[in-house]
Amino acid sequence: MAAVLCGLGAWLPPRVLANEEIAARLDTSDEWIRSRTGIAERRVADPGTSTVDMAVAAGRQALDSAGLTEVDAVVLATATPDQVCPASAPQVAARLGLGEVNAVDVNAVCSGFLYALATASGFIAGGIARRVLVIGADTFTTLVDPDDRGTVPIFGDGAGAVVLRAGDADELGALGPFALHSDGGLAELLMVPAGGAKQRRSDNPHDYFLDMHGQAVFRQAGTRMAEASRSVLEQAGWTVGDVDRFIGHQANIRILQTTAKYLGLPQDALVVNIERTGNTSAASIPLAMADAQRDGTLLAGQRVLLSAFGAGLTWGATLLRWPALANV
């Protein structure tokens, strides 16, 4: 029993934060940001808009795209739940009118959407669910120090979603195999130190914001994404030459380009929307999928490689042949 992608949705906050606005406040410039990240603008959620709000909007679009009003489970990938406790997925399910369904959060940060896809695929393979709504949503700007020129230009907010249904492994849209990995020994490379059980409170306000060691993360990301990608290609019996589109986590344009180079993929195989969205953490892959579906970059039957790297450290990859989807 395979998990088959059959619906797709996305939602971005209306507020656009352009590089020029950041440069006017911090010691940076539009040219500096673009040259190092590939980002020109990002979206920022208004104070009254939460992760659950965004997840509901993207989830509703994905359900409409799939022509469904009911699913058996909701898996929400997020590092920014509305509350530390309880999980946000049950609230999303309730807001969507899905009843008392199985609903769970997955936190693998920027790799979260891939982990959520694997979790949902497991539900389907195990007979726990036949239809699963998978959402990646993060208001990651809430974790960014507004005075940190190293992180403010990078991150944005948003949500993307897919619907998976039970089907056959040879169908268009069937996911897998998966490769998922982690290295907690390097957790401090990307970390929000305070707010959890280990350090519930801190006198240093910066401890509540993301601490990122950018160069060390860069060195890890391309290598790890390429390793996971090679693993799933080998498991599936695909070669690099079989890949039509590579949709990586939209963290940094140079990371995407480096990963493609390590794999031997042509640069024109990359699906990239980071210029307009920034790094939206767990939302980035489904947002990129939605953009590429709308503009015709993704076509039914194309062989697509997905890969991500994030805090934890976590990383992974999976494959599918792109299905015929209804745009919403």
From TrEMBL:
Query: Which GO molecular function annotations are given, in alphabetical order?
Result: 3-oxoacyl-[acyl-carrier-protein] synthase activity; beta-ketoacyl-acyl-carrier-protein synthase III activity
| Signal sequence interval, chain numbering | none
Quick check: keyword Chloroplast in the entry?
no
* GO biological process, any: fatty acid biosynthetic process
**Transmembrane regions listed in the UniProt entry:** none
E.C. number(s) listed in UniProt = 2.3.1.180
Q: Where is the protein localized?
A: Cytoplasm
Outline the extent of the Beta-ketoacyl-[acyl-carrier-protein] synthase III C-terminal domain: 233-322
User: What's its top-level EC category?
Assistant: transferase
GO CC annotations, alphabetized: cytoplasm
Keywords for the protein's UniProt record, in alphabetical order: Acyltransferase, Cytoplasm, Fatty acid biosynthesis, Fatty acid metabolism, Lipid biosynthesis, Lipid metabolism, Multifunctional enzyme, Transferase
Q: In which pathway does this enzyme or protein participate?
A: Lipid metabolism; fatty acid biosynthesis
Read off the InterPro entries from this record. ACP_syn_III_C, ACP_syn_III_N, FabH, Thiolase-like
User: Region ACP-binding: what ranges?
Assistant: 250-254
Check the record and name the HAMAP family matching this protein.
FabH
What this chain does, per the entry, is described as:
Catalyzes the condensation reaction of fatty acid synthesis by the addition to an acyl acceptor of two carbons from malonyl-ACP. Catalyzes the first condensation reaction which initiates fatty acid synthesis and may therefore play a role in governing the total rate of fatty acid production. Possesses both acetoacetyl-ACP synthase and acetyl transacylase activities. Its substrate specificity determines the biosynthesis of branched-chain and/or straight-chain of fatty acids.
Describe the protein's quaternary organization and the partners it interacts with.
Answer: Homodimer.
What does the entry's domain section say? The last Arg residue of the ACP-binding site is essential for the weak association between ACP/AcpP and FabH.
* Name of the featured protein: Beta-ketoacyl-[acyl-carrier-protein] synthase III
